[in-house]
Design a protein that fits this description.
This protein is of the alpha+beta class. The protein has a domain of 52 residues. Helices cover 24% and strands 17% of the residues. The strands form 2 sheets. It has a two-stranded antiparallel ribbon with strand order 1-2. Strands 3-4 form a two-stranded antiparallel ribbon. It is extended and about 50 Å long. It comes from Teratosphaeria destructans.
């Protein structure tokens, strides 16, 4: 049940719910400014490339100590798995626990 989360955090009305903690308006403004500067489309071609050399991937950003923007690398969330990465383990169907080949 999500009742405990509902009691402790603010959440959206979207489904699934997104839980968050509100921040002060000036901190939110500073964070938006930092994101705009870090993800600027006005950069030259070299600087526009994603950090880490994963071209074309969504990036994951976070704020260290509440204010310092940190590039957390490529986002490998629920948007899909990049080419060359497999989900889960096992390496194939029906082989685990079947004894010898």
């Amino acid at each position: 049940s999500f009742n405990l989360l509902d009691q402790r955090f603010t959440f959206t009305t979207a489904k699934p719910k997104l839980y968050f903690q509100p921040v002060a308006a000036d901190l939110a403004r500073d964070r938006r400014r930092a994101l705009a500067q870090t993800t600027s489309r006005d950069w030259d071609e070299v600087r526009r490339r994603p950090l880490g050399g994963v071209d074309g991937q969504l990036r994951r950003y976070t704020f260290e100590d509440g204010v310092t923007l940190v590039d957390g690398g490529p986002d490998r969330g629920s948007f899909g798995v990049p080419n060359g990465y497999l989900r889960g383990g096992g390496g194939g169907r029906g082989r685990r626990g079947r004894g010898r080949w």
